[in-house]
Amino acid sequence: MKEVTRKMMTDVAVFAMSQVAFYYAFKYVMSSLDPNRQKRQDSKKIADAKLGKLGLRGKDFELNEYEEQISAELILPEDIPVDFQSIGGLDGIISSLQESVIAPLCYPELFANASGLLGAPKGVLLYGPPGTGKTMLAKALAKESGATFINMHVSTLTNKWFGESNKLVAALFSLARKLQPSIIFIDEIDSFLRERATGDHEVTGMMKAEFMTLWDGLTSSTDRIMVLGATNRPNDIDSAILRRLPKRYAVSLPNAAQREKILSIMLSATTLDSNFSMAELVKRTEGYSGSDLKELCRNAAMRPVREFLRSKQGRESVAERRRLASAGVGAGKVTSTDSTPPGSLTPSG
């Protein structure tokens, strides 16, 4: 009898161990076959690095796997290279943003009011032609406010598995709440939250509905979260989304005074030729966007470099090239072949 009992116990133990081994083997195989496994691992590494800079990694600050994927889109204020001082020609918009957005985000206690009339808007829309500085303005806004900047790409929120996109949208807002004050920036917002139609895919409709529901949930006076959108086509945005973007700023092509300020900032570290005329350059760049002006200046600054590379000196010894590079390249004239107005720019080295 004892032998039978011992044998039964042994069989049960072996069976239990085999089941445990099978479970872990099956789990390992399935995780290896998971197409998103590497993506999640990469997101976790990025999240650890960025949250480590904020001193938030530890047992007291945990993120779920969806929040870790979203955290890959984080841009910390200290990592943003632009501020309001580096943006020219948008003084009116900057002044309004400082008053209506930055102040409530930075000093929430001053805007705590039972009536609910004070506080930062839940949404801000920047719209205008391409290259006018909308994205730069958004980054500078996060820099000046000290807010965590979530540069949200629509591709990050999309997933082929049903229901996963909704979880990622929920993670976007939960992460923003944990890291507030936060700015959720969506460039080309019209491509994500465009006017809904009967032909839209079911998953897309569910994701938009989830986004708007969570957006409406930002009603607490303690929430310092703002959705910031930028677009070239404001008329394509869903009317329900526009209602949630009460602050709207038209970032149009710069006028003459704005172009002069933009060019002054761009050329502040550049040595200009004695024949250079800012007034003439401003006059001949009507219709140029800020991005066009930057490319114009870059092409002009590259002109002497191109001339050097094409000259006989370009075949000098390596030592001679280094000597010339350390001394700086000589002045070069801007011509119509550069698609720029007349003038001369010399890099300061």
Automatic annotation (TrEMBL):
Residues 312-323 have a biased composition (Basic and acidic residues). Residues 334-349 have a biased composition (Polar residues). The keyword rRNA processing does not apply. Transmembrane segments: none annotated. InterPro entries: AAA+_ATPase, AAA_lid_3, ATPase_AAA_core, ATPase_AAA_CS, Mito_OM_Translocase_MSP1, P-loop_NTPase. It is found in: Mitochondrion outer membrane. It is a single-pass membrane protein. It holds the Pfam family AAA. Residues 312-349 are annotated as: Disordered. GO terms for biological process: extraction of mislocalized protein from mitochondrial outer membrane. Keywords: ATP-binding, Membrane, Mitochondrion, Mitochondrion outer membrane, Nucleotide-binding. PROSITE patterns: AAA. Signal peptide: none annotated. GO terms for cellular component: mitochondrial outer membrane. Its main location: mitochondrion. Residues 120-255 form the AAA+ ATPase domain. GO terms for molecular function: ATP binding; ATP hydrolysis activity; membrane protein dislocase activity. Belongs to the AAA ATPase family. This is Probable MSP1-intra-mitochondrial sorting protein. It comes from Melanopsichium pennsylvanicum 4.
